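Researcher: Here's a chain I'd like modeled. Treat it as a single chain, no partners, no ligands.
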Amino acid sequence: MPRVLLLLVDGLRPDVAEAALARGELPALAALTATGGVRRGITAFPSTTSVAYLPFLTGCTPGTANIPSIRWLDRARYAGRWWRERELVRSYCGYQAGRLDGDIAAGVPSVFELVPESLGIFTPIARGLTPERDPAAGERKFWGALAHYAEWHQPSDDAVTRHLLRGLARGWKFIFAQFPAVDGYTHQSTPEGPKVLRALHRVDRTVAAVRTLLAARGELDDTLIVMVSDHGASVVHAHLDLADWFRGQGVATMSHPVIWERNPRAAVMVAGNGSAMVYARPGTPRPDRWPLERLRQRETFGSTHDVIAELVREAAVAFVAAEDAPGTVRVADRDGEALVIRQDDGRLTYQPLTADPLRLGAARTRDPDQWLAESWDGPYPDACVQLLDQFRAPRTGDLLVVGREGFDFRERFEVPEHKSGHGSLIRAHMQVPVWSNALLPEATMRTVDLFPAMLHWLGVPVPPGIDGRGVWQPGRLAPVA
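Model: Modeled as a single isolated chain. Structure tokens:
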């Protein structure tokens, strides 16, 4: 019987993993990939936990799923009654984490719904799982809370390993297992810190135990094993607390965790913490976003000056983006502006106006696959596709603020301090490892493309309307000697 194991090592940078592999520190993963390969993929923006799991588990991007970030505000319904309407101001980093499954757009099925014989371990997305098929839900909350304050993350990974081996013994058809320790230790140190590498070595030992168990059951040749991550990371040298920055501009601003603010003129929702969404005039319901031209007007934020012009001059800000009209995004940095336009035939045009904020060079039109390939190793991989996708989600804010490497947008309430982070569109955050025991394609891939590949292996029909492309159809494995 074909089986799939999706092992997600949260926050693992591909170059860190590849270097450890080259040093001979990951013997089980070396044996795993000997029949398959070691590649990199491009994750979803914002490059942060929960949001970046959507491609793996639904085959859809954040825009399609209408989950644009880990924090968002329902602009069309929120009327400023911060206590009565607190459910319209979302944060998946606290008590509202359980709302994620219900917030995913209707008509977007999860792999757990498509494959009833499936198991989720330490998964923030559990749509379709029963308590029996989500056996570590309680442990995930307990160990996650302890890890956050004690900075002790390995017990979470150890719990994942126990449930993974039990699940293999029970013969589940699809198993998703998330290992959170690498991400936790990265935040408190660096992406290649000693504790990060120690946690990665422990994952390798888990892979060894998995392969041994599958071989003993005669199931190794029928099992597709994919090891991935949801985002990379980079060292943070300085914090620009974006909510406090807006307040410093004379703009009354609401933000988590204290969402009360008298007559706010801005709401700041930070993700990862390398990017943020900003909503103008929260508390005045409106269905549509405001374009950058209006956001520049002084009366929009109640300031005495063009707030956007001040914002793009900050060292922490790579660029900002806003929607001119459906299918057209205006991008601006300190040097000027450019447009990203979705054409009627599905191709995307990048048109520098007074500058080249995305560092893509001259104006040109490409299809999404070409943009992925051409920007793969650039400063902002797949940026045209990712920005247009963000503004497909009705919940996305008026303004996206994308951080420059070395900076993030949260400080006052980020306890413990993040010494490394993610969430931006920079290459260090967007490129992730994609390792497998089945031969991987040479073509560039997005993480959303793994969803149809896994269903193909299982013989499960791919649902219509997903964003994942059929660029990888893993063949059967050669018998292991």
